Amino acid sequence: MNQLFRDVPSGAGRGGQVQISYKDLERLLAEGAAWMVKHQYGDPEDLAHCEESGAIDGADPTAVSDRAKKRGLPQVGTLGSGNHFLEIQYVERIFEPEIAQALGLHENEVVVLIHSGSRGLGHQVCTDYLRDMDESMRRYGISVPDRQLACVPVHSKEGQSYLGAMRAAANFAWANRQGITHFTRQAFKRIFGEKETLGTIYDVCHNIAKLERHSVDGRERKVMVHRKGATRAFPAGRPEVPDAYRAFGQPVLIPGSMGTASWVLVGAEGAMQETFGTTCHGAGRVMSRTAARKSAYAANAKQRLEEQGIIVRSETRDGITEEIPEAYKDVDEVIDVVHNAGLAKRVARLKPIGVIKG
């Protein structure tokens, strides 16, 4: 855990080990995880196990502001703050042995779950376009109850510009997670030797809007699916699912919190009928970050976790207190709902051994 904490920088504003030029960043925004693999930060087979193969078409680096690019330039391969984390876990229980084997999961195997995104670059893209859309909505006669819901028609000039910037930010997120994966592998090799390998099971988006074909009122239509704090859960047979998993469905990763469990599932047919091929991205909060920080549970959170055998490393105290297990719903109950509703099928339950927070 100490080696990982050294090798994978975490926390708001923290820079990483990937030193790139402005021109490199432009290419990374267009190429996503493939740019990282091309520059020795990973293996080609990693890309086959990423949603969109680690880069979404239609990214427009020119639609990303200089301010956003400057924020992102030093942050490739870093965790960030808030609910972002890197967890060392083990496979506690297998529910679907055949599917688990196809995913490369076995009981008592050590796994790593990484949750991070487009860092300061993506945050700035959101800030920039919220401001721009706020002004544009008046021209289109659109009003919303909350400015965070700001929107414009997809095919408008503003809509196309935002889509290009959002896709570039998504490519940055794939590249960022690819960098974290690379440095995680290096840390494992330093401690356990060169023979230790970590393969990629899946890399899935959790804040993105995508053009997809879905059945609406009995007719197949092209629709823009917004997944905010949600993740894709396509079933077996969909062409978007990697070849290795197509017979079983797309892997779905749902984390709980530092002291509970995380789950690996696969998408099920019910998601296509009910939720545009979507399920939740996590357990969901029951306590705001401020409330968690002020709660009685926050006082000895690190000690309580370590008494359970969970090693915690965090850049700040708030990184732990805002994300205490009590701040989240019971992840097992959430998974029961997802499974019983036919949105995704349980494959494996993972328990944490060590947690790195920003």
Helix/strand-derived category reads: alpha+beta
Number of domains: 2
pLDDT averaged residue by residue:
94
Count of individual beta strands: 10
Gross CATH architecture of the largest domain: Alpha-Beta Complex
Radius of gyration: 20 Å
Search tags:
about 35% helix, 2 domains, about 350 residues, 6-stranded mixed sheet, alpha+beta, tRNA-splicing ligase RtcB, two-stranded antiparallel sheet, globular, 10 strands
Care to describe what's here?
There is one protein chain. This protein is of the alpha+beta class and 358 residues long. It folds into two domains: 1-80 and 116-195, no CATH class; 82-115 and 204-358, tRNA-splicing ligase RtcB, CATH 3.90.1860. The chain contains 13 helices and ten strands. The protein has helices at 2-7, 22-31, 33-38, 44-48, 66-72, 97-103, 119-140, 157-192, 269-274, 289-294, 301-307, 318-321, 331-340; strands spanning 85-94, 110-115, 207-216, 219-228, 230-232, 251-254, 262-267, 278-280, 311-314, 344-357. Strand 3 (207-216) and strand 4 (219-228) form a beta hairpin.
Can you give me a brief rundown of this structure?
With 358 residues, the chain is of the alpha+beta class. It folds into 2 domains: 1-80 and 116-195, no CATH class; 82-115 and 204-358, tRNA-splicing ligase RtcB (Alpha-Beta Complex).
